[in-house]
Amino acid sequence: QVQLVESGGGLVQPGGSLRLSCAASGSIFSINAMGWYRQAPGKQRELVAAIVGGGQTDYVDSVKGRFTISRDNAKNTVYLQMNSLKPEDTAVYYCFLTSDLDYWGQGTQVTVSS
User: Fold this and answer.
1) Tens-digit pLDDT profile for the chain (114 aa)?
2) Concatenated DSSP letters of 71-110
């Protein structure tokens, strides 16, 4: 069993920054990918950013140039540095890990508002 524990969400003003963390623990054999989805009220869940085993990264167009995903392999932890936040970034952010199965975190709320 794999557990994902997220942290770092909160309330921030437009233009501000937040850093999300997601630490994986448990029986992890190999990690194919880790990353973040988000879901805003009334909208479908969307992939925000992902990092695969070779270190390649991918981002949804709306966050390119503002968000940066990174991973500490020794700690099985993935980070999402979010800069220049906008109100439309407001959502619950879910960490995921793809290994033998897909695993999900519990979600962390990010609210961008003045």
Assistant:
1) 899 999 999 999 999 999 999 999 998 878 899 999 999 999 999 999 999 988 899 999 999 999 999 999 999 999 999 999 999 999 999 999 999 899 999 999 999 999
2) EEGGGTEEEEEE-S--GGG-EEEEEEEESSSEEE---EEE
Q: What is the DSSP letter of 27?
A: S
CA 86/CA 66 separation, integer angstroms: 10
Backbone angles phi, psi at 83, to 5 degrees: -115, 165
Half-sphere exposure of 86 (CA within 13 A, CB side): 9
Amino acid at 113: S
Q: Do the beta carbons of residue 4 and residue 22 sit within 8 Å?
A: yes
